[in-house]
Amino acid sequence: MINKDVAVLGAGIVGVATALHLQTRGRDVALIDRRGAGEETSFGNAGIIERATIYPYLFPRDWRKLAVYAVNGLNEARYNWRDLPGFAPFLWRYFIESAPRRALDHALSARPLIEACLGEHEKLMRDAGADHLLRKTGWLKLFRNEASFDEGRAAAEAIKPFGLNVAILDAQDVRRAEPALRETVVGAVHYLDPASVSDPQALTLAYLRLFQERGGRFAQGDARSLQADSDGYVVETAEGVLHAREVVLCLGPWSDLALAPFGYKIPLAVKRGYHRHFRPEEGASLSRPVLDADRGYLLAPMARGIRLTTGAEFARRDAKPDYTQIEKSEIFARQLVALGPRVEDEPWMGRRPCLPDMLPVLGAAPRHKGLWFNFGHQHHGLTLAAVCGRLLAEMMTGEKPFADPSPFSIERFA
Ligand SMILES: Cc1cc2nc3c(=O)[nH]c(=O)nc-3n(C[C@H](O)[C@H](O)[C@H](O)COP(=O)(O)OP(=O)(O)OC[C@H]3O[C@@H](n4cnc5c(N)ncnc54)[C@H](O)[C@@H]3O)c2cc1C
To answer: FAD dependent oxidoreductase domain: from which residue to which, for each copy (predicted)?
Structure first.
């Protein structure tokens, strides 16, 4: 039997960062995943550390926009209508939680996390020797018509009171910032505070390496074998049965499956997303992620080429991939930037783990001593990984939490 203080289940960016923070606080930690580290959602995201997000992704409340969504008329979101009955309860709660008053409460709850998100990553990156992956060049939101540009400018103005820095760019400024853009847009908002990484999986692996160099153990195992015993928990791993006094569940989009046997039912749903890389044609390089807001896709310069990522697809977690969104995005993206050949034969698909209030579940299990949660970071799991790892480790080790964790408790779904 392997004995540890803590077993962290799930080695995506959230689990690895949590394991590091616990280890720094003197805990003997094992990290367990059924695959390698960073091979699921944390593999393929757009790489943005979204220091400028104040409001979480909200369910639209404009009925005209909803009507267009209803016929899959906007590329940024797509519904699989066959899966809708399964999704409807989540969508209804998402709609309710997106009401302006509630959305403001959620934003205020998450604000301390957003404020510290980049600083916490930078500390881990320094220790892990991964600073070279970080680009502090912000990201650009492009607009193709005056009406959407007006909305974009208003949204940018609204975050200035939070101490955030944005620049409003006209068409010429955009061209100067990103000379590779071939189409003329009306303007853009340049979010200056966020940063981005050139390889999200490499970042997860760099954190894992640091964890292992410091004596941490990584083992393959299935979190669904988790059971309580008299003195903590046991889980089966490829290296034998592992016993830990405490367990942290960081299973991202699969967290509900491991929780169900313990009697916790959570309204977790996934917003699926796709990526594909392209070799840039000569001169087609980008300095930062660029969101084509009116056409609903994003391009980010990455180690493997220019990564095209899609918006949200509402479908069952395990439904067959539907490449409609990424194929349409590719047509738009090729008009904007001189993209060369595709790097992969098939697009990658990932699943953003979402709760209806777009806040993570972070904290103690109310009915199981020693069981802890850190999952459900929706569109911002890379952004929030280091800071949420810190907050949970503070709670587990009796330190004063740097932020109020109560809004993230699983008990909000009781
Ligand atoms: C297209 C796209 C773009 C995105 N862009 C951004 C962005 O720019 N910025 C940002 O901050 N976020 C972004 N996100 C969201 C972000 O990627 C996720 O929130 C984040 O990766 C979630 O991390 P995680 O560690 O919780 O989950 P995961 O990375 O999915 O890790 C969960 C781990 O649990 C393991 N696991 C599951 N079940 C079991 C089991 N039974 N036993 C053992 N192990 C198990 C899996 O193998 C996996 O390694 C994007 C997501 C997508 C899809």
So the answer is: 5-395
Encode pLDDT of 69-123 as tens digits: 888 888 999 988 888 888 899 999 999 999 999 998 999 999 999 999 999 999 9
Could you tell me if the CB of 389 is within 6 A of ligand 1? no
Minimum CA distance residue for ligand 1 atom 22: 381
Domain co-membership, 210 together with 304 = no
Cα-to-centroid distance, 303 and ligand 1 (Å): 19
Please give the residue range of the domain that contains residue 68: 54-98+134-196+268-354
Question: 10-residue block means of pLDDT along the chain (414 residues)?
Answer: 96 98 98 98 98 83 82 87 89 93 92 96 98 98 97 92 93 96 96 98 98 98 96 97 98 97 96 96 92 97 98 95 97 97 97 97 97 97 98 98 98 92
- Please tell me whether residues 169 and 233 are part of one structural domain: no
Q: Do 75 and 148 have their domain in common?
A: yes
CA 72 to centroid of ligand 1, rounded, Å:
25
Q: Does residue 321 share a domain with residue 210? A: no
Ligand 1 site-directed mutation target among 254, 297, 325, most atoms within 8 Å of CB? 254
At 55 the pLDDT is 76
Q: In this structure, what CATH number is given to the domain that contains residue 159?
A: 3.30.9.10
Integer angstrom CA distances of residue 11 from 14, 105, 130, 370? 7, 30, 18, 19
| Domain final position from 329, 354, 379 | 354
Is 348 in the same domain as 205? no
pLDDT of residue 68: 82
Model pLDDT, residue 54: 76
Cβ contacts of 342 within 8 Å, gap of 6 or more: 276, 277, 278
**CATH code of the domain in which 379 resides:** 3.50.50.60
Q: Are residues 348 and 277 in the same domain?
A: yes
216 lines ligand 1 (CB under 6 A): no
Decide: 317 in ligand 1 pocket, CB within 6 A.
no
